[in-house]
Every structure is written in C-alpha cells, then in structure tokens.
Design goal:
Order of helices and strands of chain A: EHHHEEHEE
Low-confidence stretches of chain B: none
Helix content of chain B: 25-40%
Strand order of the largest sheet of chain A: 1-2-3-5-4
Radius of gyration of chain B: 12 Å
Largest sheet of chain A: 5 strands, antiparallel
Largest sheet of chain B: 5 strands, mixed
Low-confidence stretches of chain A: none
Largest interface: A-B, 25 and 21 residues
Structural class of chain B: alpha/beta
Oligomer: heterodimer
Strand order of the largest sheet of chain B: 1-2-3-4-5
Number of strands of chain A: 5
Chain lengths: 131, 100
Amino acid sequence: MIKRFDPIEGRNSDIIESIMQSDEVVGLGDDLKFKIRLCVEEVEENILCYSGSTWVEAGAEVEGDHLSISFRDGGVEFDPLAKADPDINAPLEERQIGGLGIFLCKQMMDVVEYKREGDHNVLKMKINIKL
Amino acid sequence: MDVTIKKEGAQTLVTLVGRLDTTNADQFQKDITPLMQDENPDIVLDCTDMEYTSSQGLRMFLLLQKSVSSRGGKMVMTNMKSQVKEVFDITGFSNIIKIL
C-alpha cells in the first residue's frame, strides 16, 4: 500500500516502519526484510538529502513473484542511479565516504529504476520474494 | 545502537548491540570518539548482537579504521551476523577492515 508522508522532515523511522510493518512485507523472511529495510533507508536518505521535496509517497506492493517498492517525491530532478558506482577495490586511504547507499540497493535488489514523471521523481525497486 | 567500551590490558573491547542507521549514526560517532585518541590502539569490535548497519554505519566504520590505521593501530570486527557481513562484502569493506 502506498502512503503519503507530508512533511517528511524528521520522519525517517515512520517511513521505514510503515513499509516494514505493511501486510506485504511483515511476513517475509529475515534475510529479505534485512535487504528491504536497508534499501528503503538508503533511498529515503537520498530523497531527504538531495530532492528538497517536502513530501514523499512510499510503499510496497506485490507484483507476481516480486515485491515492488516505490517512492514518488516532488523535489528537483535527481537521478540517484546516474552517479558512478564507488570503487569497491580502492585501498583504505583512497576509499570515499559517498555513494555506498545506492550501490547497495543496486546489488541487493533485482531491479532499481528511476523516472522523471512531470514534476516528480519516481524510484522503483523490485526484489524476488518467491525464491 | 548501544556501545560499551572496556579496556582489557592493552586491548580495547567494544561491544555493539542493536541497529546502526541514519537515526543514530551521529550518536554512534560521538560514542566512538574515545577510540580515536590513543596511540597504537588495539581495538576489538564485538558484533555478536549488531543487528543491522546501513551505509551510514559503514561510513562510521571507515572513519574509525582510517583513524586507527593513521595512529599505527589495529582493529578487528568479530562474530558478525551473516546479513551484516554481506553488506561489508558487497561494498568491499571486508577488504579494508579485518573481520574474524
């Protein structure tokens, strides 16, 4: 179920828990829930940091074998997938702090896609829940 | 995330309990500040009850490892849960932080 959060400032936990406690997610296995929590947190953190939107619509829906998690916000155009992946083989002294969150989403989810729809940023992630 | 720091001879044992995420990463950074002061530190992070870390948590561990290395010390993370270990593996952190 998709829910609207307005305003979003300071509501990180509300948004994460709303998805984690939803009927679509609550009964899934621990490994899946770990990945879902992590990816939801990373996307939401990106929206809060970069989009400047005061609201977000977020939620999870089951589509066949997959759980689809979507986010829609009204902020400035921001495609988090456009950023280059961090160099995960860099030595300690050269490791950078940024870019790890979305990289984790790309690795843990089966699909991560971004679209600009009118004045909205739309980010969708899908993960197989039947494997 | 609850952080307990205990000195055992030359070694510092740090016990991490709970989740490390965006809501408590700032507090965690304050909690580990004492670990960023000694010369030649020898730090063991007991992760038996660390349930979760997001990229915010990884940043803190990177910060700590860089600080420890720059002071000629060593640091090891022990008993990490498989789900948490996967986060370290995917991001290559397993190559720059010692995990036992």
